[in-house]
């Protein structure tokens, strides 16, 4: 499985900001936000992160009023789902059953939990 959904900490922080703002943001505003949060990023540092996110199709860039705006094209829910799938693939050979077994400590899960898992599987969410 590709490593597309393993973001660096700073890349994930940028995505969190874009998801929270839910609008296109210029790089200057993104840079100012993080530098006000204690980061000491230069413009080129941010541009490197943004380029990687663009390349991996997490964000898109549009031009507006002679500046670029960045916005997410993958939702937070989609990201978390793919990240979880990758974890199960890497740690449990892609087996959800192995994951649930490890999570339950090898113990049988309760009938109630089994029904809830069954509902989730049927729902596909």
Commentary on this structure:
With 125 residues, the protein is mainly α. Helices cover 59% and strands 11% of the residues. The chain is built from six helices and three strands, in the order H-E-H-H-E-E-H-H-H. It has a three-stranded antiparallel β-sheet. The longest helix is centred in the C-terminal third of the chain and has 17 residues, at 76-92. The protein is elongated. The two termini are 21 Å apart. The model has no long low-confidence stretch (mean pLDDT 89).
Features of the shown structure:
125 residues, mainly alpha, 3-stranded antiparallel sheet, 6 helices
Concise account of the structure shown:
This protein is mainly alpha-helical and 125 residues long.
Give a topology summary.
Elements: H1 9-21, E1 25-26, H2 27-36, H3 43-55, E2 59-64, E3 67-72, H4 76-92, H5 96-103, H6 111-123
Antiparallel strand pairs: 1-3, 2-3
């Amino acid at each position: 499985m590709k490593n597309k959904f393993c973001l660096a900490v700073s890349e994930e922080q940028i995505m969190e900001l874009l998801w929270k703002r839910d609008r296109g943001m210029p790089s200057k505003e993104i840079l100012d936000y993080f530098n006000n949060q204690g980061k000491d990023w230069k413009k080129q540092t941010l541009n490197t992160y943004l380029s990687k996110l663009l390349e991996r199709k997490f964000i898109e860039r549009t031009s507006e009023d002679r500046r670029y705006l960045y916005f997410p094209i993958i939702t937070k829910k989609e990201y978390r789902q793919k990240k979880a799938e990758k974890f199960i693939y890497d740690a449990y050979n892609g087996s959800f059953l192995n994951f649930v077994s490890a999570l339950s400590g090898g113990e049988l899960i309760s009938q109630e939990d089994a029904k809830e898992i069954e509902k989730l599987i049927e729902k596909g969410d």
